[in-house]
Write a structure and sequence with these properties.
The protein has 17 helices and 12 strands. It is an alpha/beta fold and 446 residues long. Strands 9-8-7-6-10-11-12 form a 7-stranded mixed beta sheet, sandwiched between helices. Helix 6 crosses helix 7. It is globular, with a radius of gyration of 21 Å. The model has no long low-confidence stretch (mean pLDDT 96).
């Protein structure tokens, strides 16, 4: 395998798709040495096949707003790879959504799902619909129109979407209601992230953040460190950041920063139950601003236009969007003594930031390993739905613990260097790739 030649070919076929090309390059550079030790992979052209999605659905979504005006958005579903199971991945509603973003997310999802040890392929979807400022009725009408176009291409053993940025329990409910009407069958397993009264799993809302902190715990333990008493800066204030803040606080860490598009909250006294619950109120308001947090809690201060990475902390956890932590942010964190960064968002750090962290020798782990607890618990939800039963919170949490420990172990197995430093990026990429590649090889050329 020649990475530069492959990337040149890919850039020619997909010009300008920066997020997608960035994600592919990271994986190819990580796996190059191992891949070239397997001539059977080269003969079957595994890399050339694995970097391209199986198929992409693009469709128009037309809906009517509260003023009675007709609105049109674009909808997508990228079914990337089903070598180890049905397509599985979230739906993202955000004004920046485009094919490049969804292809990068679907590509990442393929290896993330492989890391969970559960039988799930990779997919992603969404729309450039912006939920900010929309009423519940508008969001419902959009979700119904979106599902009207998508429903024939998903199914319990075909493709199982979930939530992502802009798609929470409310949206999953609206989407599922329309699916049931169209399919005329009750399939509890066609979407995950459902409400507890109709097939949802205990701990699914918290799972991405919880799993991330379990992974961080394993990282720290291996490095001889303890999370108790550590200061943490989080980006975002939505479902993922909420789960991370909740579990970090429970484990004895102090979450001293959260952020939004409008700026950063400095929270020197850490989180308590009231503050953590208020994060959900902020997200549900559909205003997409974090400033009201400081208005409600006098011990917190708001600084407009700043990121969470401007706050001095021990551990940085990007929880919002791709490439949200850049090289300059990494330099600021390192200058302030940060000794651990774990991506809870997908591809939360730019390549420059990752290189800076690795060069400095601090603990760093990528999103496909750190945030896999979310899709893992979605997989557990699918299992419960197929069995027509519901596990207790204790059972789900124990399984999540086991999965995150397994992912960490796989990363260490493939990522530990001769000097003892664990390259979690390399470890996660190789572990996920080897499972998918072997499955593709065994199933022939198709």
């Amino acid at each position: 395998m020649n990475v530069e030649k492959l990337m040149a070919d890919l850039e020619r076929r997909h010009p300008g798709e920066s997020e997608y090309l960035q994600a592919v390059r990271e994986v190819l550079e990580s796996i190059e040495e191992v891949y070239n030790q397997h001539p059977e992979f080269e003969k079957a052209k595994i890399v050339e096949r694995i970097v391209e999605p199986d198929r992409i659905f693009t469709f128009r979504v037309t809906w009517v707003d509260d003023k009675g005006e007709v609105q049109t958005n674009l909808g997508y579903r990228v079914q990337f790879n089903s070598a180890i199971g049905p397509y599985k991945g979230g739906l993202r509603f955000h004004k920046a959504v485009n094919p490049s973003m969804l292809k990068f997310l679907g590509f990442e999802q393929t290896f993330k799902n492989a890391l969970t040890t559960l039988p799930m392929g990779g997919a992603k979807g969404g729309s450039d619909f912006d939920p900010v400022g929309k009423s519940d009725a508008e969001i419902m009408r959009f979700c119904q129109a979106f599902m009207l176009e998508l429903w024939r291409n998903i199914g319990v053993d075909t493709d199982v979407p979930a939530g992502d940025v802009g798609v929470g329990g409310r949206e999953i409910g609206f989407l599922n209601g329309m699916y049931q009407k169209l399919a005329r069958q009750y399939h509890t397993g066609v979407l995950t992230g459902k409400g507890m009264n109709w097939g949802g799993s205990i701990l699914r809302p918290e799972a991405t953040g919880y799993g991330a902190l379990y992974f961080v715990q394993h990282m720290l333990h291996l490095a001889g460190k303890d999370i108790k008493g550590a200061t943490i800066a989080l980006s975002g204030f939505g479902n993922v950041a909420w789960g991370a803040a909740k579990k970090a606080t429970e484990l004895g860490a102090k979450v001293i920063a959260i952020s939004g598009p409008d700026g950063v909250i400095y929270n020197p006294n850490g989180m308590n139950e009231e503050k953590i619950n208020y994060m959900l109120e902020l997200r549900a308001s559909n205003r997409n601003i974090v400033a009201p947090f400081a208005e409600k809690f006098p011990d917190a201060t708001f600084t407009p236009g700043k990121k969470a990475w401007s706050i001095k902390c021990d551990i940085a956890l990007p929880c919002a969007f791709q490439n949200e932590l850049n090289g300059d942010d990494a330099a600021e964190l390192l200058k302030n003594g940060t000794w651990c960064c774990a991506e809870v968002s997908n591809m939360g750090c730019t390549p420059e930031a990752i290189h800076a962290f690795q060069k400095a020798g601090i603990l760093f782990a990528p999103g496909k390993a750190v945030n896999a607890g979310g899709v893992a618990t979605s997989g557990l939800e699918m299992t419960q739905n197929c069995m027509h039963l519901s596990w207790s919170g204790k059972e789900v949490d124990e399984r999540l613990h086991t999965i995150m420990a397994s992912i960490h172990e796989a990363c260490v197995t493939y990522g530990k260097q001769a000097d003892g430093y664990v390259n979690y990026v390399k470890g996660a990429n190789i572990a996920g790739f080897m499972k998918v590649a072997q499955a593709m090889l065994e199933q022939g050329i198709y």
